[in-house]
Amino acid sequence: MVASLSDLPIRDDLRGLTPYGAPQKKVRIALNVNENTHPIPEAVATDIVKALAEAVLGVNRYPDREFTTLRQSLAGYLGHGLTAENIWAANGSNEVLQQILQAFGGPGRSVLGFPPTYSMHSIIAAGTGTRWVAGERDEGFEISPQTAVQWIERTTPDLVFFCSPNNPTGTPLSLETIAAAYDATNGIVVVDEAYAEFAPSELPTALTLLEGRERLIVSRTMSKAFAFAGARLGYLAADPAVADALRLVRLPYHLSALTQAAAVAALAHSTEMLAMVDDIKAQRDRLLVELPKLGYPAWPSWSNFVLFGGVADPHAVFEELLDHEIIIRDLSIPHHLRVTAGTEAETTAFLEAMAGLGPIGAIDRIGA
Ligand SMILES: *Cc1c(COP(=O)(O)O)cnc(C)c1O
């Protein structure tokens, strides 16, 4: 006996929705969900295992509910004068964002976002009963201060979600836009900086705007640059009052002792953990140069992935690459696909497969 979802007394506002659905397939070259494709260094792994071995002996007790050591480590990693009080963490930044919407959104409230953007933002909004309001971007996926302010004035959201650099386009967001949005609302402004470590290192992050802005939240994750996606650790920096709000909605002991121990051990090796970031940026820059040569114009990217256009049949290309044991991402943006910068060998294999595509490939085939 198998019932279907529609047989269940599910919330009316969840009827007909589809869950997050990036395909998970075991293939040789996975360039579809923007992971760091370099495994963590073995010496760091050994240290993490040691920390886990110690922590596991204490799992008869609940973990530190305030994850104090981890918050200190994260504050130290971020710098910018932040202390443990400014930090909050959860099982991935997705959970951080969910807690933010549980505390500041919910039924009767709304969150403004700017598609195309991270699909989980609207999915988490739906899960928490927060109305998702879709703003529009300017030319080239950018958001000017005027555009942000106009959308805020027109839709008066309770929260504004930005993503910088933006997933799936790679587009950076200026601090002027964030500051103008903050001044235009009495609500919460969230800047999802999941890819911050891949942006040019000399440029300031939204962390520099936190001072004096108690409604601004900058979210980060160890899932991308830090090569820790499987461990599930996301975090935010904000005024300490924000953590007080999230304590009201989080489940007690939401971060297991094992997660805390693993993350603290990894953060003690942040230099080694981030060692491949420059290499990944070089592969991203290579994609930005090589894809256009094959007839696929690429959007500027400050992250570890590239959104490219000019694809005659994105779905067919996706399937053809799968036959080569390569998975990338089809986001249903017409004539576009997104690819994560991999290792040099993975990026080479992807570019070679792209160069070998027939009529399903580039609309304007160079030399064809
Ligand atoms: C990958 C990604 C995250 C990461 O989520 P985690 O739950 O921390 O793994 C967050 N925001 C954006 C925009 C992402 O692309």
TrEMBL record:
EC number(s) reported in the record: 2.6.1.9
Annotated pathway: Amino-acid biosynthesis; L-histidine biosynthesis; L-histidine from 5-phospho-alpha-D-ribose 1-diphosphate: step 7/9
Domain Aminotransferase class I/classII large, chain residue ranges per copy: 29-353
Cofactor: pyridoxal 5'-phosphate
Subunit structure: Homodimer.
NCBIfam families linked to this entry: hisC, PRK03317.1
Domain of life: Bacteria
Name this protein carries in UniProt: Histidinol-phosphate aminotransferase
One BP term from GO: L-histidine biosynthetic process
Residue numbers of N6-(pyridoxal phosphate)lysine PTMs: 224
PROSITE patterns in the cross-refs: AA_TRANSFER_CLASS_2
Pfam families the UniProt entry points to: Aminotran_1_2 (PF00155)
One function term, GO molecular function aspect: histidinol-phosphate transaminase activity
